[in-house]
Amino acid sequence: MGDNARQPVLDETLKNAPTTHAKLLAWVAEVSELTQPDSVYWVDGSEAEYKQLTDELVEAGTLKRLNPELFPNSFAGSSDPKDVARVEERTFICSENERDSGFTNNWMDPAKMKGILRERFAGSMRGRTMYVIPFVMGHLDAEDPKFGVEITDSAYVVASMRIMARIGSDVLRKIEELDAFFVPALHSVGAPLEPGQQDVAWPCNEEKWIVHFPEERSIWSYGSGYGGNALLGKKCYSLRIASVMARDEGWLAEHMLILKLTSPENKAYHIAAAFPSACGKTNLALLDPTIEGWKAETLGDDINWMRFGKDGELRAVNPEFGLFGVAPGTGWSTNPNAMRAIAKGNSIFTNVALTDDGGVWWEGMTDEVPEHLTDWQGNDWTPEAGRPAAHPNSRFCTPIDQVDMLAPEYHDPQGVAIDAILFGGRRKTTIPLVTEARDWTNGIFMGSTLSSETTAAAAGAVGVVRRDPMAMLPFMGYDAGDYLRHWITVSGKGNQDRLPKIFLVNWFRRTADGGFAWPGFGDNSRVLKWAIERIEGKADATETPIGFVPTPDSLDLTGLDMTPEQVEEAVKVDPAEWAEELKGIEEWYARFGESLPEQLSAQLKVLQERFAA
Ligand SMILES: Nc1nc2c(ncn2[C@@H]2O[C@H](COP(=O)(O)OP(=O)(O)OP(=O)(O)O)[C@@H](O)[C@H]2O)c(=O)[nH]1
Ligand SMILES: O=C([O-])CC(=O)C(=O)O
Ligand SMILES: [Mn+2]
């Protein structure tokens, strides 16, 4: 197709644009020229538009409409089997200097990377519609709203972005009114259509590039339609780019849930918790407490932006608008709050199984396994199949305001003051159920050495233990040592008497017989109660070399079938296991080289001395 044929699309784009924002128009024109879509569509975020898009997605075979009596206004779709998770090896932080991307990230010279990407994006939207989605992460009326515009050639991405972020005309108006900066976030599935070529249900490209330019604060994502790779407001903006903004502006952008807990005495506490992908954030965020008189309300399940307020308190907001939760393991017994939200409908499911009556199912949803399903790849499935019906990283995408237990403060741009921060991972051994840090820096040490077995949320091997500092390993937009130093120094802005207490938790420890040492899920409320009682100076603890763990009778076990010996097992600090762990931490810290903050190497030294004593 020659340039002449392109000109009408471009002219039409600019003529029909619902904005006069010069930078936005220039960027849209530039991208349109590069990617050569058939048409350009400006997303307004309306209900009617959503209906139109989902109708088209059903027509194209990307989505199936679910039985409205079971799941109103809901859809399920299956991705290409090679496009089911985030692709960490294909994710790049292209800072000007390699040093600033750090040893945990992939790096390439930005100019060289732009050259490669321009080649990939050239003509990549041919035969498709190019959608322009104005969005804001966080509140539109925040003091300093964080805007973005995603350009994508995927209607699935547009529909999902509408659930996950505040998008559309209101946002565009505000960008204009403030003449605000926006993060340009460019996405293409990388599957242009030649004239007459039939589209596939899930277009994508074998070659994937998830690229961030931190200084420019821009994102280029190519080849994947999967959530974390393609919904660019989520990991790409709200963690990788936002962590750089946060470093420069003195705040924190973290992979954390936000939970409000109210005690029987009617005192409210707010807890932030960082666990790696598929390690329990959504579940704890939607906690159903098993202890009498305690009430849980949620503010967020994946991303938490925190800053010290004028009062010196660390205030947290969830910049997202929806849940993009791991489906398997989400069930009526483990997470009824999520199930109730999903049952209200208005959801998009990806890679789940379909029931014969037009509903969805996944492992762990119900105790009873259906006799027949269509599995996520479209094959007949029975319980004898010997393979999961839903992909292990299948997801539900659901508006957060459908959660009955949503805290009213979710809607407050000022957020909530955090009382406790939890760092947690998935470890079969070594790490106790809960350990209280001695102080803020000791807590940062715990976060910096956090480790977890890998999960299906990212492509690659599952079950391999790796260090995942603050659960941010795949999401830090800059050097890991600088990131840890920022955590240490940012606390200087806070009221030192009100700094949150930090705890390390592990819901996944196993006993000798292979079972979980702790029942988890709703019973995690017992651990939170202990943490709160530690804040109040009410609960007992045993001092160990790594910090304070509960005494068996300081944990509320009312109604739980657990002996004090079993609790000891769950919280024990085993010197032999820790000898191994210390070696692992030493190796991990060695990888930082010069950039490791000296406060943290000092922490390791003290820990080694404590074990040696
Ligand atoms: N044993 C045990 N498993 C848990 C617990 N909480 C969550 N899980 C399991 O952890 C897996 C996923 O947890 P999620 O809460 O969806 O993970 P997440 O941290 O929100 O993950 P991302 O959305 O990928 O960032 C599911 O298989 C759950 O069954 C717990 O307390 N105990
Ligand atoms: O980003 C995604 O696709 C889902 C998610 O929350 C994670 O992987 O941590
Ligand atoms: Mn996540």
UniProtKB/TrEMBL annotation:
<keyword id="KW-0547">Nucleotide-binding</keyword>
<dbReference type="InterPro" id="IPR008209">
    <property type="entry name" value="PEP_carboxykinase_GTP"/>
</dbReference>
<feature type="binding site">
    <location>
        <begin position="393"/>
        <end position="395"/>
    </location>
    <ligand>
        <name>substrate</name>
    </ligand>
</feature>
<dbReference type="InterPro" id="IPR008210">
    <property type="entry name" value="PEP_carboxykinase_N"/>
</dbReference>
<comment type="pathway">
    <text>Carbohydrate biosynthesis; gluconeogenesis.</text>
</comment>
<feature type="active site">
    <location>
        <position position="279"/>
    </location>
</feature>
<dbReference type="GO" id="GO:0005525">
    <property type="term" value="F:GTP binding"/>
</dbReference>
<dbReference type="GO" id="GO:0004613">
    <property type="term" value="F:phosphoenolpyruvate carboxykinase (GTP) activity"/>
</dbReference>
<dbReference type="GO" id="GO:0005829">
    <property type="term" value="C:cytosol"/>
</dbReference>
<keyword id="KW-0479">Metal-binding</keyword>
<keyword id="KW-0418">Kinase</keyword>
<feature type="domain" description="Phosphoenolpyruvate carboxykinase GTP-utilising N-terminal">
    <location>
        <begin position="27"/>
        <end position="247"/>
    </location>
</feature>
<comment type="subunit">
    <text>Monomer.</text>
</comment>
<dbReference type="Pfam" id="PF17297">
    <property type="entry name" value="PEPCK_N"/>
</dbReference>
<dbReference type="InterPro" id="IPR035077">
    <property type="entry name" value="PEP_carboxykinase_GTP_C"/>
</dbReference>
<dbReference type="GO" id="GO:0042594">
    <property type="term" value="P:response to starvation"/>
</dbReference>
<dbReference type="GO" id="GO:0016301">
    <property type="term" value="F:kinase activity"/>
</dbReference>
<dbReference type="GO" id="GO:0006094">
    <property type="term" value="P:gluconeogenesis"/>
</dbReference>
<keyword id="KW-0210">Decarboxylase</keyword>
<feature type="binding site">
    <location>
        <begin position="521"/>
        <end position="524"/>
    </location>
    <ligand>
        <name>GTP</name>
    </ligand>
</feature>
<feature type="domain" description="Phosphoenolpyruvate carboxykinase C-terminal P-loop">
    <location>
        <begin position="251"/>
        <end position="610"/>
    </location>
</feature>
<feature type="binding site">
    <location>
        <position position="255"/>
    </location>
    <ligand>
        <name>Mn(2+)</name>
    </ligand>
</feature>
<keyword id="KW-0808">Transferase</keyword>
<feature type="binding site">
    <location>
        <position position="235"/>
    </location>
    <ligand>
        <name>Mn(2+)</name>
    </ligand>
</feature>
<keyword id="KW-0456">Lyase</keyword>
<dbReference type="GO" id="GO:0006107">
    <property type="term" value="P:oxaloacetate metabolic process"/>
</dbReference>
<keyword id="KW-0312">Gluconeogenesis</keyword>
<keyword id="KW-0963">Cytoplasm</keyword>
<dbReference type="InterPro" id="IPR013035">
    <property type="entry name" value="PEP_carboxykinase_C"/>
</dbReference>
<feature type="binding site">
    <location>
        <begin position="226"/>
        <end position="228"/>
    </location>
    <ligand>
        <name>substrate</name>
    </ligand>
</feature>
<feature type="binding site">
    <location>
        <position position="426"/>
    </location>
    <ligand>
        <name>GTP</name>
    </ligand>
</feature>
<dbReference type="InterPro" id="IPR018091">
    <property type="entry name" value="PEP_carboxykin_GTP_CS"/>
</dbReference>
<feature type="binding site">
    <location>
        <position position="277"/>
    </location>
    <ligand>
        <name>substrate</name>
    </ligand>
</feature>
<feature type="binding site">
    <location>
        <position position="302"/>
    </location>
    <ligand>
        <name>Mn(2+)</name>
    </ligand>
</feature>
<dbReference type="InterPro" id="IPR035078">
    <property type="entry name" value="PEP_carboxykinase_GTP_N"/>
</dbReference>
<comment type="similarity">
    <text>Belongs to the phosphoenolpyruvate carboxykinase [GTP] family.</text>
</comment>
<dbReference type="GO" id="GO:0019543">
    <property type="term" value="P:propionate catabolic process"/>
</dbReference>
<dbReference type="GO" id="GO:0030145">
    <property type="term" value="F:manganese ion binding"/>
</dbReference>
<protein>
    <recommendedName>
        <fullName>Phosphoenolpyruvate carboxykinase [GTP]</fullName>
        <ecNumber>4.1.1.32</ecNumber>
    </recommendedName>
</protein>
<feature type="binding site">
    <location>
        <position position="86"/>
    </location>
    <ligand>
        <name>substrate</name>
    </ligand>
</feature>
<dbReference type="Pfam" id="PF00821">
    <property type="entry name" value="PEPCK_GTP"/>
</dbReference>
<keyword id="KW-0342">GTP-binding</keyword>
